[in-house]
């Protein structure tokens, strides 16, 4: 499937729900901004992808700083570039890719709770490293959930549309006070990424050389990287078994090797099943790092402890 | 039966065929319902069942019944669905030629087969239906269509399926139904879930 299914009966309401009456007014959406929470796990047997924030750890941190439960919905802002206004005094928090931030044109800090007045305008500038910044609003974004999640699934078209200039997003009532935090730096790593990888489930479909190559060679994140997966470029991984593999279930972080031998690592919007063999699986705790890797980033794989 | 690790919290169980997949899927979902297995996802596919979100995959190896192939499950007790279909698909004549019959013959075979949902995938609510005999398997189209409308009934390989939403697709199109295959207001949202028994009926 090369494009999101269209014509689905997914509700796409943009009107604020009843509730707290607080709204986040998006003045400028940036290159690619979506609403994300922790996704809709448990439905893969119906063909429904997990979806959710690509850097789930960063969304959790933003929620904690804004006084929200970990699974509240926020904005995933690719490369920064968002400007938005809140209609009532609340707490905001920005995590993930480091970006210059201002509130009402005054510099503000990422990784800290930001108490803002009613009508305050937050600007999240262009990311200086990494790919994806997360904005949490006290109370969380309360666009209508679809199958228990407010995440935009770019593969299957479930959940709200990507955020556009002028969108008005409802915010729920704040449930807790933000924590007292002095410093909460969490910059994404720069330079080469090291990802721990587990062999299998189909490493035996490859030559022994292919596994050694994966662990010794340098790969680069290609420009063909989106919420479905990160394509890599580097030495070709050669197959030992030709022919077709019947479709089978896929996990987050699966390293699938299509016919051209160039690996692709699946991220949150990955399809639930696939037919190319999976040589290894990136440890789930390293997938957040990969989600912040810009095209051109060099990757090394190291064996995960058995 | 063979199990392979897929990272720290998932295992992929290999099975000899779709009957064994259905049996293993029922066994594992039953274990989970009774609280004897923790798994966030149990995903049947063509020759495998994936367990994901498993806190202790090594313990699951011990739960599995060794080399013994589970008995193919019966279909009594499973949900039964009839899908009323207008057989006017663009590839109906091609399928008739591949099957050595005519349009009426294709309709008779398709409506005369008891299908079962082997697994879902490709898109939310897209079910892979097994039941056609080996001599009624057909290849995919050489060139996939860029848009197949929602409700299209189609064939590829050993499977029959119905497109839940409009999407690109390379299957052989034999008809269309007005049934809604994926409805967010239903629980579960998919009309066809693994194990469901499906029959097709010609629209009068």
Q: In this structure, how is the largest beta sheet of chain B organized?
A: 7 strands, mixed
β content of chain B, as a range?
Answer: 25-35%
Using a beta-carbon cutoff below 8 angstroms, give the protein chain pair with the largest interface and the number of residues from each chain. Answer: A-B, 45 and 47 residues
Gross morphology of chain B is: elongated
Structural class of chain A: mainly beta
Query: Regions of chain B with pLDDT < 50 over 5+ consecutive residues?
Result: none
What is the β-strand count of chain B? 13
- Our measurement of the CA-to-CA distance between the termini of chain B, rounded to an integer number of angstroms, reads 45 Å
Task: Indicate the percent of residues in helices of chain B.
Answer: 10-25%
Shape of chain A: elongated
Mind describing the biggest β-sheet of chain A? 7 strands, mixed, barrel
Mean pLDDT, all residues of chain A: 91
Structural class of chain B: alpha+beta
Low-confidence runs of at least 5 consecutive residues of chain A: 1-18
Keywords (chain B): ATP-binding, Hydrolase, Nucleotide-binding
InterPro entries (chain B): CT_C_D, Cyclophilin-like_dom_sf, PxpB
Pfam families (chain B): CT_C_D
Organism (chain B): Catenuloplanes nepalensis
Structural write-up:
Chain B: Keywords: ATP-binding, Hydrolase, Nucleotide-binding. Chain B: This is Allophanate hydrolase subunit 1. Chain B: Residues 1-192 form the Carboxyltransferase domain. The complex is a heterodimer of chains A (306) and B (204). By secondary structure, chain A is mainly beta. Chain A is built from 3 helices and 20 strands. Chain A has helices spanning 56-65, 208-216, 284-291; strands spanning 22-28, 32-36, 74-78, 80-86, 90-96, 101-103, 106-108, 114-116, 121-126, 132-137, 168-171, 193-199, 219-225, 229-233, 248-249, 254-256, 264-266, 273-274, 278-282, 298-303. Chain A is elongated. Chain B is an alpha+beta fold. Chain B has 4 helices and 13 strands. In chain B, the strands form 3 sheets. In chain B, strands 7-6-13-5-12-9-10 form a 7-stranded mixed beta sheet. In chain B, strands 1-2-4-3 form a 4-stranded antiparallel beta sheet, covered by helices on one side. In chain B, strands 8-11 form a two-stranded antiparallel sheet. In chain B, a hairpin with a 6-residue loop joins β6 and β7 (127-130). At the A-B interface, β15 and β19 of A face β2, β3 and β4 of B.
